[in-house]
Amino acid sequence: MTPGPESRFFFVHVMKTGGTSFSELVRANFRKFERYPDVVLAPDSDIIRRMEAYSFAPRLIEDVNAQPRLRMVRGHVPYAVRSLLNADYTAMTILRNPVERTLSYLHHCRKFHGEHANTPIEEIYEQPWFYETFLHNYQTKLFSMTPDEAMAETRFGDMATPLPPRRTFAANKALAPAARKLLNDSPARFTLELFSSATGVIDADSTRLASARRALAEIDLVGVTEGYEKFLARLRDHHGWRIDSVAHRNRGETPKVSSEFRKRIAEDNKLDMSLYDLACSLAT
Q1: What average pLDDT does this structure show over 233-245?
Q2: Run of H or E including 90
Q3: Residue 2 forms part of a structural domain
Q4: By CB count within 10 A, which of 60, 68, 120, 194 is most buried?
Q5: Which range has the worst mean pLDDT, 35-39, 163-167, 270-274?
Q6: Is residue 4 part of a domain?
């Protein structure tokens, strides 16, 4: 059994929720010309092109709307992108316990960001740009953004460190001194700022939470990392996906930290904790 020929799916891939393992299922159920971003990426595409396709909402929307045969779209983009796609897509997403997601992202920073190597995760947590962009009520921000915000070129701390416009950026183009300094001091932030949605500029509050809860309630299939098997079962039973045994990949380790630090993360992410509770109820 496979998904019906007329069915289309849009997967909002929240960072550090285990969604990378989902790519294996996508490849098993859809041909390359039906899958985004696979269809627009050449085997030799560099990391910049891959990040742009997967994380830069304006490029994703442009690419997807130019591919009428697509049936499976994935990306690290806000849910509001769904309303900007020409075709009608069944929306899916997976959320994760905010404390575990935060610790997993901090571990990711230490493992993959040169500027964070050997840095205590508590210190990474204190860095304003990473905190506001990927840690502080990140899931609430991602599901409460408006279409205009999803498309915005605004950056956190824009005035302090000017960067080249995203669409005109080229690796061989001369950079302004402030941008070159940021590239040298924090290459991970520099690269992420080029393409990531502008969640850092959003102030999450009760109104944002209400918007995020409404958005989550209208998504067709909601799962949680801690109940991944139930998510797969619903894909199989209700949407006709072929589900083989798939191990979690890239869910990310959660390092050992003090109970006080865990409590602090939970307190800082009260909105995300509330949104996660809703996701758990929708995932049953």
Answers
A1: 90
A2: strand 90-95
A3: no
A4: 60
A5: 163-167
A6: no
